[in-house]
Amino acid sequence: MAATSNRRGSLSGRPTVVEPIKEIIRLDTFKGKFAASEFVEALSAKLVAHAQNTPRQFDPKPFIRTFEASIDELLRLKRKVHNKIDDLEDQAQASDRLRKKKLIEINDAMQDAQNAFEALESRLGDVGKTAISIGEQLETIDKQRTRAAEAKDLIQYFIEFNAGDTSRLDDVNAAGPEGEFKTAVIVRRLIALAKEVDLAGTEAAKTNIEDYSERLEKQLLERFDEAYRDGDKVVMNECAKSLVEFNGGESCIRAYVNQHEFFMNQSDVDETQPRDDEEGNEAREEPESEALAKLCHEVRRTCKKEWEVIRAVFPNAPVVMQQFIQRIFAQSIQTQLESDLRHGDDDSVLSYLRALFKAHSTILALANDLHKLDEDVVAGNAGKPVLTAIINRSFDDLFVPYVEGGKYVEAEQECLNNEFMQHLSTFQEYAAQRARTPRGKVVAKAVPAAPSSPTKTSPTSAAAMMNSLVTTMNVLSSEVAQQIGLQAAPEPMTPEEMGMPSVSLMLKLLQAHVEAMTRCRQLTQPSEMAKNGSLLFQQLIETVGVKYLEVALDMMIEDLQYHDVKQQPTFLQLPMVQVAQKILQLLQLHFQCSIVPGIASSPTAHRDMVVYKNGFMSTVEHRLNVLVQKQIDAIVKWLETCLNGQKKTDFRPKDEISSNGLTVTLPCAQCTAFLKDAYEQATYCLAGHNLESFLREIGSSFHVLLLDHLKKFVVSQGGGLILLKDIASYQHTISMFKIAFLNERFDMLREIVTLFVVKPETLKTVINEGHLSRIELPLLRPFLSQRADWSKLTHLERDLFQPGASRQQTARVGGGRDGARGGDPAF
């Protein structure tokens, strides 16, 4: 501050700030975007230009004077701004105080107005209560006065009726529609009064009132009928109002419904339709299946159109519409339904159930459309459907006689049984023929039974004996014609004709069951669905599973079990493993897609059916395992039979032969050819782990047979080459199985066979090399003893088998049919 004062003092003698500085240092300069460098440049622009134009040394004094003057001007401007801010703050505070004062005044005024309004509202409420009380009293008095006047008139009418005078009421009735309505009200009240009055001398009044009421009702109905025939809705509405007020309108509603053209047309059709003419039935068979659908379509159209008429005519339109719909279901639809079901029942149970299912679907669609009509049209602005109860009750009443008390599920079970028996008839004929055929004999193809005549005849009648004779002659002539070549041989037998299951037949059976489950889900009540679904699934398992699949597997197992070991076994049964697996897969898929949705609502039924289904599948899988094992046993038996055909001289030829002329022996050729056939059949019928286990079992069993086979023959030097050729052929065939375990076993077997070929002096070397080095020496002795020259190698025998010379090895030759089962000693 001292420096500032000194600076100002030193400049006291110079003139006032020049005008350009005042023009630059203004309040508008600092508004908006302000840059200090631009501000300084503006203050010193002229001084800089003057200094540049002056050649002498730079003089800072002009700049100092200019900046000092600028600072003084800025301070003056700052004081001016601060003063203005203070003035504005004072004005704002004064305005705020004034605003608060006004708000307090307004609040007080509003409070006074609210208090006044509440007081006025309280007074108006008191006045309103008083007015309501007065109004109620006036209304009560008016009602009492009206009732008294009406009672007086009613008593007067009663007295006049007792005297037989009805002229005054006739005049009222003749006054037009309003007079008719008033007359109906008076007569209704007179009827009620006559029932209450029990005085002597009033019998004439009662009789006259009854007669007059009948004449009035008849008069109104005649006018209603005439207007109905003329299509005059106004007159119909007038009569309907009077009749509704008179007796509820039941008579005019009946008249309207009974005379409706929809029911009249249906009655004409029913009367003209032929009943017993067989040709007529056949002619209308196709239209019959579509008649119900056409009828339902007509009902939809009629109900939508008729509601507009009923609403315009009747004051109680919903009640009339209810009776109209109830009559449609009870008369037209029920008649057509009974006709369809009667024709279906005459055909078969399946046709009956299909007709019932189709009718249920068609009528259910109609009921849903009527519900929609009720919600969108009939209910109107009320928003509450009025036809729901009558539609549901009428629909249920149609089908109750056909589904109640287990009737439906019994018919479904009968239908399924017929369907199953029809599809399984060929298989069952084979099974019955097989049961009559001695074991070991070929089962002849069952001869289909002659079609039964529709006329019942006695078994001993001439017609029955003639039919039997003709059938027998036809069969014999066919067999003779085939034998002499005059008739072509019969077509190949189907799997069912050979007693074997097939996927195609199972698909037909499941298709029938899917159709039954579809009907069951629609025709069964939700509370009974789990029970009925379980019954139908149990029938499927008991009929198709136990009586078809299990029986077929048992027959195939029996064929393999009692197969003649002297005959080469066939592989007819092996493909049935794949067929049975596919059948189980289809059954599982059917269970998930068709059965579970129907029984899922009952956890208990679902659990029981899962256990039941799994138990059946386990039984079938056990039979499949037995079947495969029997097939393996048959294969091994035949391999053993082939090996038993080996001659003693096959491995001791009299003449020495060269290695170029060696061929495998006949048993070897038979075994390898049979093994290749078994491998091809197995790869076609089995897969994955099942295929590997099957081939492993055969290979292991064959390995055991070959080990025992080598111990039965004395082998010479040349015979060893033949034996080595056989073993190489076996090894090559087994290598097709692509199982490392079997390859190792047959490698070891081949090294054992080399013991018959090597020279005596190299036996010790061979025994201590390769796989043989892991075999205990005592186990090799039975093979070495079969060398033709072994009796001459006593010194070698002593060296190899003297006490303490055996090797303790962990590996063993041979083994059971697989490594897991154990059995014979293993190498």
Automatic annotation (TrEMBL):
Domain spans labelled Exocyst complex component Sec10 N-terminal: 60-172
Region (Disordered): 266-290, 804-827
GO cellular component: exocyst
Stretches assigned to coiled coil: 71-123
Pfam families: Sec10_HB, Sec10_N
Keywords: Coiled coil, Exocytosis, Transport
Superkingdom to which the source organism belongs: Eukaryota
Residues of the Exocyst complex component Sec10-like alpha-helical bundle domain: 182-792
GO biological process: exocytosis; Golgi to plasma membrane transport
Bias (Acidic residues) ranges: 268-280
Family the UniProt entry places it in: Belongs to the SEC10 family.
Protein name, as recorded: Exocyst complex component 5
Organism: Geranomyces variabilis
